[in-house]
From TrEMBL:
This is Laminin subunit beta-4-like. Residues 1-19 form the signal peptide. It comes from Dipodomys ordii (Ord's kangaroo rat). It is found in: Secreted, Extracellular space, Extracellular matrix, Basement membrane. Disulfide bonds join C297-C306, C362-C371, C425-C434, C477-C486, C489-C503. GO terms for cellular component: extracellular region; laminin complex. The keyword Cell cycle does not apply.
Length: 611
């Protein structure tokens, strides 16, 4: 009866954790309980009496040398009617049933090193351990725990009647601060002979804990596995002697009435309720007493231990809830264009701790941390909110003529005079869509960084405004002008030089020049001997043009005039002679000039041009 009272007290106010069951007002915590309840399958002992066959064991009598002996048979689980002598480890799990005092776990006789191990299915918070012994408490034992499912272990506390002998090198006495590893001798006395307890509090209630979520505290108060190693039996002085007698071994073994591993589901202050992680196999005799391991997370957190923010609640870094601060996770703001985001510390710090959520895969042609901008090649409809799925409209710009392949002004800015959707033309391009070359430019092309090339029309050779064909670049030439830029004169003309009207016809004098072609530079016609002037219209110095009748006269006289230089060589107008001879006789003469009829004129011109 005595130990039942103390058990009652332990379950009550020894928990060490203040209940905070309302998540709305800050940190909250699921109610603690005995982690063993419902987990018999996860509790094992390295030694149990009578597992393979019935074994005898004895108890010390008050009269020295007298023993009372019993049978242990643990081949089947305990049953008050059919298996009253079964002492398997699951008997230590409190059941509050009337036969509690009659059930216990017991190890095999005479074994010093025996361990009990609890393997939890997830990380739990652990506050204290209470062991209630049927026999003497161990002369030495230790408690260790793992937070990584048994990969590594850390001793929480040593217990020994004589710490210096059992655990040399471990400080004996009480812990002075959080995390001190000590050997405690208060729980290893040989008295009482039954009902004695070993109590381990993970955090001494007298310690001031500033932040229960500091890594150091977290490391102390959480566990996935617990192991209790009994390392030395109390043998009441007959150690040496007793070990030589089979009888005395039967009196020494470990026996536990009850074990309490008090703890709670570990939710970082973000849940007040937990549910099963998976269907745990075991004796769930009272589902309300079971401490489940999977937190029902609040504050927009997620994970078995509420150890992260829920999807899309990544705007602020995850934090445990402490006291009045719920440290709830905040939703990202993506203007309705994304349902996914991640936390980015750089963005969070850059915003001065305002927003660290970066939206992913922004839809509706948006981009930016919050999907708050239109993507390149799209612009913001000034009449729609950015949260509107149609807020971003495609730029209607000719990609060839627009800077950066078709971008337009993303949003209106009165201070800059820019209008949303306005195309940003390359230098030599114009038009609302940047699809036309500016005047005097041609050949719109994507590869040209300026968009169009200058026509480069010759200012004198081309028509006014120096325009050219938009595609080919051919300039529009004035008369007598040719070439892609109107920079050349046509055959039979010359210039343009500084000539006022570009090219001018050669206009070579028929008779004075060999042909109607002239130098393109200065228009000089190809003059016959002793004829000069650009058009070959002037006689060379010392010569004059004789009228035809004089020429004929001379021919008739056939003698040069005295005292004068030869007036004109007979070759001065030979083509006329030749021509007239070749053409026969059909011409007229009028006061020394040859009169040609219309046909003769044309054929004479054609002949000239053919030369
Ligand atoms: C406790 O016992 C187990 C085996 O039963 C052993 O592997 C482990 O090392 C022991 N722990 C310590 C701290 O001695
Ligand atoms: C102790 O028990 C063992 C076997 O269990 C037996 O061989 C031995 O003789 C016994 N010793 C005494 C002193 O009874």
């Amino acid at each position: 009866m005595q130990f039942q009272l103390s058990l009652f007290l332990h379950l009550g106010w020894l928990s060490g954790w203040k209940a905070e069951d309302e998540c709305g007002r800050g940190a909250c915590r699921p109610s603690p309980g005995n982690l063993l309840v419902g987990r018999s399958a996860q509790l094992t002992a390295s030694s149990t009496c009578g597992l393979k066959e019935a074994q005898k064991y004895c108890i010390l009598s008050y009269l020295e040398g007298e023993h009372k002996c019993f049978i242990c048979d643990s081949r089947l689980p305990y049953n008050p009617h059919t298996q009253p002598n079964s002492h398997t480890i699951e008997n230590v799990i409190p059941s509050f049933e009337p036969h509690r005092e009659k059930t216990w776990w017991q190890s095999e006789n005479g074994l010093d090193h025996v361990s009990i191990r609890l393997d939890l299915e997830t990380l739990f918070q652990f506050s204290h351990l209470i062991l209630t012994f049927k026999t003497f408490r161990p002369a030495a034992m230790l408690v260790e725990r793992s937070t990584n499912y048994g990969h590594t272990w850390k001793v929480l506390k040593y217990f020994a009647k004589d710490c210096a002998i059992s655990f040399p090198g471990i400080t004996a006495g009480q812990a002075q601060k959080v995390g001190d590893l000590v050997c405690d001798s208060r729980y290893s006395d040989v008295e009482p002979s039954t009902g004695g307890e070993v109590v381990l509090k993970v955090l001494d209630p007298s310690f001031e804990i500033e932040n229960p979520y500091s890594p150091q505290i977290q490391d102390l108060v959480t566990l996935t596995n617990l192991r209790i190693n009994f390392t030395k039996l109390h043998t009441l002085g007959d150690t040496l002697l007793g070990r030589q007698q089979n009888d005395s071994l039967d009196k020494y073994y470990y026996a536990l009435y009850e074990m309490i591993v008090r703890g709670s589901c570990f939710c970082n202050g973000h849940a007040n309720k937990c549910e099963p992680l998976q269907q745990v196999q075991g004796d769930i005799f009272s589902s309300t007493a079971v401490v489940h391991g999977h937190c029902v997370c609040q504050h927009n957190t997620d994970g078995p231990n509420c150890e992260r923010c829920k999807d899309f609640f990544q705007d602020a870094p995850w934090r445990p809830a402490v006291g009045a601060q719920d440290s709830a996770c905040r939703a990202c703001s993506c203007n309705g264009h994304s349902e996914r985001c991640h936390f980015d510390m750089t963005a969070y710090l850059a915003s001065g701790g305002l927003s660290g959520g970066v939206c992913e895969d922004c839809q509706h042609h948006t981009e930016g941390q919050h999907c708050e901008r239109c993507r390149p090649l799209f612009y913001r409809d000034p009449f729609k909110a950015i949260s509107d799925p149609y807020a971003c409209l495609p730029c209607e710009c000719d990609p060839d003529g627009t800077l950066s392949g078709g971008i337009c002004v993303s949003h209106s800015d009165p201070s800059l005079g820019s209008v949303a959707g306005q195309c940003l033309c390359k230098e030599n391009v114009e038009g609302a869509k940047c699809d036309q070359c500016k005047p005097s430019y041609f050949g719109l092309s994507a590869s040209d960084p300026l968009g169009c090339r200058p026509c480069g029309c010759h200012p004198l050779g081309s028509l006014p405004f120096s325009t050219c064909d938009m595609d080919t670049g051919q300039c529009f030439c004035r008369a007598y002008t040719t070439g892609p830029r109107c920079e050349e004169c046509t055959a039979g003309s010359w210039g343009p030089g500084d000539h006022l009207h570009g090219c001018a016809p050669c206009d070579c004098a028929i008779g004075g020049a060999y042909s109607n072609t002239c130098s393109p530079k200065d228009g000089q016609c190809d003059c016959r001997p002793h004829v000069t002037g650009r058009r070959c219209t002037e006689p060379a110095p010392g010569y004059f043009f004789a009228p035809l009748n004089f020429y004929l006269y001379e021919a008739e006289e056939a003698s040069p005039l005295q005292g004068l230089a030869p007036l004109i060589l007979a070759t001065a107008l030979p083509t006329c002679d030749v021509y007239f001879q070749q053409q026969g006789n059909d011409f007229t003469m009028d006061r020394g000039n040859i009169i040609l009829n219309k046909n003769q004129k044309q054929s004479l011109r054609a002949d000239e041009q053919n030369k």
